[in-house]
Specification:
single chain; 806 residues; alpha+beta; Cytochrome Bc1 Complex, Chain A, domain 1; six-stranded mixed sheet; 25 helices; 19% strand
Length: 806
């Protein structure tokens, strides 16, 4: 059996009444290190960093006077001393020197007091910008002066030394091979017992109180602002573990802040371990150029967003309880390794009953030139409003749980769909959806998740789906998918290259014969709004819309009403986690109302025959459409059933066009029927493909069929066949989780089947020949000079004559 590898970190016994010794075992360093850490939280808190800096200077000077080279650094709430050692003897010598320097009482006039005076004077030259930042400094542990940092007398210094340098507040550490650890442990064990001291406790004020606002003029450029969000956590691991994500320049916090009307930049993220938990401080800067108007509201929005994101990230963090040891082993310098190990040995959790997160906001506003900074009361009031706005859901949510499925699905889309698009920008929304999906799918966090565009007349967005990773919780699984979808569609700026790629793909699509015909049909059914029928847009709209227009379309979709559908595969908590993750990406303003943009009333459909040119050699095709009132749900349902009766191998179109037992006699190569243009310009539409020679005959035969149906020719057998066809289609769709997710997003519900009489009534009311819109798509023809006609140059077409009813 192979011997087990000894742990790289641990704690050595030093005997009762002695400080603990943390050990970081490592090889390869030319020298090892010894360090000690001292927690001073709760000792003269009104003096800020002064007690720590003074006692650290005292101990450093005493140790150096004994010929042992060390450095000591004090901060707000504690200090550390450390040095390099080349042997076990030097390790023991350093431990002895530090212990004796710590435990010796302060004497009047001793030489070390001169060093204390110098260090305190240096601290005074680094004053805290404002007393409002005291809690921030206590969180980060940075050394700032308080403005009254006179050198302490021997009596004050002795009181601080005696209160801090005892059991429970001091820890030692070694970094190097086992001989250094052995020597350090022996030196502590052989020395005298240490006195007891009161436990270290932070003096942080309860969080979630009203924001502290101060005048930052002189600290910041005129008109600029700085926001600091601090959060006290029950454990130090929680705060330090969340810091990398909060500070990530591509992370959620930075991305969400960048999407605001007044973009905020993450200046710093500092996380610290304390005796009774952890603390993280996130500092944001807002430039004066982004605060010319509504400064208080804009700063408050950024502050409330950051507070929310800090809370979310901390809630999602599950840091290892061994994080402190891990950080010690990661250090490249042995002194850093020993210092971290000593400090984390003292770090602890908040006492029982203090598990809640304590947050606070501090805002500094620099007065603009020739103007006053916003009043503190105004900013606090705006912050209250912004906080309420961020806590109120901004996205309509629909969830469903399907336990045991292989993937989870998240669909986020604007419920405005193509409503705001006109002829000149038809396809701008589809460009946004495709660009967002491509951007999300190529992001670093996508992994094996798939992100697809969702493009429909009633919705534009992205659909993300994928399996859980090994060891990933169900909630983390759907949060990851939700972040992918929401970040790309609702927060991050769209990459210009992604927009260009999406536009190119859509232009290629719009050039195909079927898309040309459908776009022309849309222009006739919804004059001025072709994308209400063809949501992928038209060649004209895609070519006409500028990059600026596409950017405005993206902003409009984000600012309007959004809906998310989550198809979870574990439990309801998983679905709720995804919905919350989406909601946090949605930018919002206090008091705003999310609504689709207004649009001009659409003109009525324009019946007639329209010609479209398709590439030479392609089959000709025709679209015959009967408009339906958008407000008449029963008519739309009847049209769906009638389309099912027309469609299919044994349908009415097959009887009229298929040639029966002689396929060579068929008037069309293919046919189908469906309702298009839902919900704003619905129409029962028949599509025919045929040779150019037979297209007119196929159209005439189809018109005759519609005329017969208008006269009551639909049979009960036709209705039964339609019912069977719709049932088969429903089963096919229900087997596809993508289709189920879209149906969930739309809120589709089963509706009663129309009777044969209802179908007759619909046909009689709707299938009038003078209401038909016909689009005939043919290969380009040559004029008398041998030149091809384009679509708009071709001589005007008229309705082909009806075929008599038989």
């Amino acid at each position: 059996m192979l011997p087990s590898t000894p742990p790289r970190t641990g704690t050595r016994a030093t005997g009762e009444g002695r400080p603990p010794l943390a050990v970081v075992q490592r090889e390869g360093d030319p020298r090892g290190a010894i360090a000690a850490a001292v927690m001073m939280e709760g000792i003269a808190p009104e003096q800020g960093a002064l007690p720590s800096v003074a006692v650290a200077a005292l101990v450093e000077a005493r140790v150096v006077a004994r010929g042992v080279e060390v450095t000591a650094v004090g901060g707000w709430g504690g200090w550390r001393v450390r040095g390099l050692v080349a042997s076990a003897a030097e390790a023991a010598q350093m431990v002895d020197a530090v212990r004796e320097a710590m435990l010796a009482p302060v004497a009047q006039g001793e030489p070390a007091l001169a060093a204390v005076t110098r260090k305190v004077a240096a601290l005074g030259k680094r004053p805290l910008p404002d007393r409002a930042l005291v809690d921030v400094a206590a969180c980060t542990g940075e050394a700032f002066g308080t403005g009254s940092d006179a050198a302490p007398g021997a009596a004050d210094l002795e009181g601080w030394r005696r209160a801090a340098l005892g059991l429970g507040r001091v820890a030692f550490a070694s970094a190097g091979d086992a001989t250094l650890a052995d020597a350090a442990a022996a030196a502590l064990a052989q020395g005298p017992a240490w006195p007891a001291t009161s436990p270290a406790r932070s003096t942080a004020t309860p969080g979630d109180a009203r924001a502290v606002v101060y005048d930052a003029s002189g600290e910041l450029p005129p008109g600029a602002a700085r926001v600091v969000v601090t959060a006290r956590t029950p454990t130090p691991e929680q705060a330090v573990g969340a810091a990398p994500a909060l500070g990530d320049v591509r992370g959620p916090l930075a991305s969400r802040l960048a999407a605001l009307d007044a973009p905020a930049r993450v200046r710093s993220v500092v996380a610290t371990a304390h005796a009774d938990g952890g603390c993280v401080a996130v500092t944001l800067d807002l430039a004066a150029r982004d605060l010319p108007v509504d400064a208080a509201s804009r700063v408050a929005t950024a502050a409330a967003l950051a507070q929310q994101e800090v809370a979310v990230e901390l809630a999602d963090t599950t840091a290892s309880p061994d994080l402190g040891r891990d950080l010690a082993t990661r250090a490249s310098d042995p002194r850093d390794a020993a210092e971290r190990a000593a400090w984390w040995t003292l770090a602890g959790s908040r006492p029982a009953g203090g598990e809640q997160l304590l947050t606070a906001i501090t805002v500094g506003m620099a007065a603009p030139r020739d103007a006053a900074a916003p009043a503190g009361d105004l900013l606090r009031s705006e912050l209250d409003r912004a906080t309420l706005a961020w806590h109120a859901p901004a996205v309509e949510t629909r969830t469903h749980v399907e336990r045991g499925q292989g993937e989870a699905w998240v669909l986020l889309a604007s419920t405005c769909g193509t409503l705001a698009e006109a002829t000149s920008d038809a396809g701008a929304g589809a460009t946004v959806a495709m660009a967002a999906a491509a951007q999300a799918g190529s992001s670093a966090g996508a992994g094996d998740a798939r992100v697809e565009p969702f493009v429909a007349s009633d919705g534009l967005g992205v659909l993300a789906h994928g399996p859980a990773h090994v060891g990933e919780s169900a909630q983390a699984h759907t949060r990851r998918l939700a972040d992918l979808a929401a970040r790309a569609f609702a927060a991050d700026p769209l990459d210009p290259d992604r927009i260009a790629g999406a536009r190119t793909s859509l232009l290629v699509r719009s050039g195909a014969g079927e898309s040309r015909a459908l776009g022309t049909l849309g222009a006739a059914l919804a004059p001025g709004h072709p994308s209400w029928v063809e949501p992928f847009g038209t060649a004209f709209g895609l070519a006409s819309a500028s990059d600026e227009a596409i950017g405005m379309r993206s902003s409009s979709l984000r600012a309007g009403p959004l809906r998310v559908a989550v198809l979870a595969n574990t439990d309801a908590g998983q679905a709720d986690a995804a919905a919350r993750a989406v909601d946090r990406w949605i930018a919002r303003r206090p008091g705003e109302t999310r609504a689709c943009p207004p649009f001009a009333a659409t003109a009525t459909p324009r019946p007639g025959t329209y010609a479209v040119a398709v590439p030479s050699g392609a089959l000709s095709e025709a679209l015959l459409a009967v408009p339906i009132s958008p407000a008449d749900d029963s008519a739309r349902m009847a049209a769906t059933w009638l389309a099912a009766a027309l469609d299919g191998p044994g349908g009415l179109l097959a009887e009229a066009l298929g040639g029966g037992s002689s396929p060579e006699a068929a008037l069309a190569r293919g046919w189908s029927a469906a309702v298009v243009g839902t919900p704003r310009s619905p129409a029962l539409t028949v599509r025919l493909t045929a040779t150019e020679a037979s297209l007119d005959a196929a159209v005439a035969q189809t018109r005759a069929l519609l005329d017969r149906l208008q006269q009551g020719a639909l049979r009960d057998a036709d209705r039964s066949r339609a019912a069977a066809s719709l049932a088969r289609d429903a089963v096919t769709l229900s087997l596809d989780p993508r289709a189920r997710t879209i149906a969930l997003w739309r809120g589709e519900i089963a509706t009663p089947a129309p009777s044969l009489d209802a179908l007759h009534a619909f046909a009689a009311a709707a299938l009038h020949d003078d209401a038909l819109v016909i689009v005939a798509a043919r290969p380009s023809r040559l004029d008398a000079g041998g030149h091809p006609f384009s679509a708009h140059e071709r001589p005007p077409a008229t309705h082909p004559p009806k075929t008599p009813r038989g």
